[in-house]
Design a protein that fits this description.
By secondary structure, the protein is α/β, with parallel strands linked by helices. 22% of the residues lie in helices and 27% in strands.
């Protein structure tokens, strides 16, 4: 049996993963094959070292097929992978805020003259002006209390939304905060209806320029049979959440009932299989060629990391070539609000610490839906 171990099928590779050559990127291809079996990689004889083989391939296109072929007296075996070359990659970051509904209700209840009379949007504007950050706000249709829906938000601020659409985008997240995991086992019609409902309201009150396809669906669990609902609506990237127990049923060990210690496989991963899920925990992106979706690994959730650990968490990622090129940053809206039970008084400080790290280390702000993962295609 012949097996390509590196690169992984679906790997997104950039200049950190190989050697720049004229018109391409030279990468190493490593794998295993029975001892004594002749191996070629894309038609070129590979170097053998016991059961291992090594070869070099030059990527010249955005996507490249790599075929390792083994030949012996008993026949021919082949293993193929496809990889993506992020040819024009540069250090970049994106920032998404999930679970938004409270600030929309607040604007309506207070009848602010400007969107930025809201302390929440005002805070984001200050960070944008200081760091150039682009924010994607993922919206619920209704508040958790069901005392407000997007239908109540007026179109009187359309001009102001448009004036700030270069750095502030709105998108779909879910119909509501509860139930948890709303699309993990849903029918396609449910996801489609909720998506179109939220998208339609955003278009009505903010206009097309303020809309962006979502990169995070509530709880990060959407069955693959529902992925076409998203891709047909322009979704190109989905971010998997970062959590300390990704290989467990529980995001937080405090949620685990006594006696329940059995692992449940990977979670918050859009139902990717275990092999791809494990790969994504150690790399920043992976493409599913059948759907066309690129999966990005979320690097930090600011409301879950203490202020003194924000910079060190990102610094560890920045030293690893597999995670250093793109910073995928998150937080959640509710932790900004003093009435929320888990309010973080230093929430804006945590967000700023992440943005400061990116700015000081040469990362540029992007939206993932523009170009390839926010870069040039």
């Amino acid at each position: 049996m012949i097996n390509i171990l590196e690169p992984f099928h679906g790997a997104v590779l950039n200049h950190r993963h190989g050697r720049a050559v004229d018109g391409g990127l030279e990468i190493a291809v490593r794998g295993t094959a029975p001892v004594g079996e002749a191996v070629t990689v894309n038609g070129v004889a590979a170097h053998r070292m016991g059961a291992q083989f090594l070869s070099q391939v030059i990527l010249r296109a955005h996507e490249t097929d790599i075929a390792a072929v083994g030949s012996s007296a008993i026949g021919r075996a082949e293993h193929r992978v496809r990889v993506v070359w992020d040819r024009y990659s540069r250090p970049r970051y994106r920032f998404a805020v999930d679970d938004n509904s409270f600030f929309m209700r607040d604007i309506v209840q207070k009848s602010y003259r400007s969107l930025f009379d809201s302390f929440y949007l005002s805070g984001l504007l200050k960070l944008h002006r200081k760091y150039g950050t682009k924010f994607l706000l993922n919206l619920f249709f209704t508040t958790p209390e069901n005392d407000f829906t997007l239908r109540e938000f007026p179109a009187t601020y359309r001009g102001e939304w448009a004036d700030n659409a270069d750095w502030l985008k709105l998108s779909f997240h879910a119909y509501a905060e509860v139930p948890d995991r709303p699309y993990q086992n849903a029918m396609p019609e449910k996801l489609a209806a909720d998506y179109d409902l939220v998208a339609g309201e955003i278009m009505r009150f903010a206009g097309e320029a303020s809309w962006a396809p979502p990169t995070v669906i509530h709880w990060g669990m959407v069955h693959p049979t529902l992925w076409p609902v998203l891709t047909q609506r322009g979704v190109k990237v989905l971010s998997a959440a970062t959590c300390p127990n990704l290989g467990s049923r529980y995001v937080d060990e405090d949620e685990k009932p006594a006696g329940d210690a059995a692992p449940f496989g990977y979670d918050l991963n859009y139902n990717l299989d275990d092999a791809r899920s494990e790969y994504l925990t150690r790399h920043e992106a992976l493409k599913d060629f059948e759907s066309g979706l690129v999966f990005s690994h979320g690097d930090i959730v600011c409301n879950s990391v203490s202020l003194d650990r924000i910079a060190s968490t990102l610094a560890a990622l920045a030293t690893d070539p597999n995670t250093a090129e793109i910073m995928d940053l998150f937080t959640h809206e509710q932790y900004f609000w003093p009435f929320y039970p888990s309010y973080r008084p230093d929430h804006f400080q945590r967000v700023e610490a992440a943005l400061r790290f990116c700015a000081e280390n040469g990362y540029e702000p992007v939206f993932f839906h523009e170009g390839f993962l926010g870069g040039q295609e």
